[in-house]
């Protein structure tokens, strides 16, 4: 005898689907100019939420200045990579507050600093797992960099041609690793915060969105990279402005890219 279904059966199936692990949430198709719109929205949020922007901007600035001072104090660039690993661990958690502030403002609420700080605990297990994943990627790059030094010219004042293999291989490997890290992290953190999905769902969804919108994502990655370089070029002071704007912009990028629940 065929089974009959009632509405509760479908509700249960929907809940199971919402909590399915390692799935890929569909994405929208973006224009190549979309990142500039996200940047404009991020700048608007920066102006509209000065206290929140200043707090998180100061946190990012302090971390960047700490790296610069550590390099100068040690007198060697060998501490840069370990410092960046720490930065990669704390960065996503600081960005959570910015995402939450934009989210609250988007819903028509008054964003507050205390509320934004609570976002850190919204999906902490997945967020910590993702931070560790980023740290592992950075450690992997450190090991590769150590191996690359084996082909680094040992003679001081060697001609440029002797440096070319080192520069070429290092640039290619660095670009590949940067592309991988960007792909898995472009939308993962805001997705884990808003929908409380598991880390693998967030990663798969982010990679899928980047793969299907390569043009827009290349532009957005360039904007993010430029903002970070500007921050460090000003000895960390620029982070006071660039990181909050990029953080807000990332939320708007996520909101425009990942399809909403129905």
Jot down its keywords.
262 residues, mainly alpha, 11 helices, 0% strand, disordered N terminus
Structure description:
The structure is a single chain. The chain is mainly alpha-helical. The chain has one domain (33-257). Helices cover 75% and strands 0% of the residues. It has eleven helices and no strands. The chain has helices at residues 7-18, 34-48, 50-74, 80-106, 113-117, 124-148, 160-185, 188-195, 199-212, 214-233, 239-257. It is globular, with a radius of gyration of 21 Å. The two termini are 33 Å apart. The relative contact order is 0.19.
Give a brief description.
This protein has 262 residues and is an all-alpha fold. It is built from eleven helices and no strands.
For the record, the count of structural domains works out to 1
Average pLDDT level = 82
Biggest beta sheet summary: none
How much helix, percentage-wise, in residues? over 70%
Tally of helical segments: 11
Beta-strand segment tally: 0
Separation, N- and C-terminal Cα atoms: 33 Å
Structural class: mainly alpha
Note the beta-strand portion: under 5%
Which value, in Å, is the CA radius of gyration? 21 Å
Shape: globular
Elements, N to C (H/E): HHHHHHHHHHH
In terms of per-residue confidence, which ranges show pLDDT below 50 for 5 or more consecutive residues?
1-18
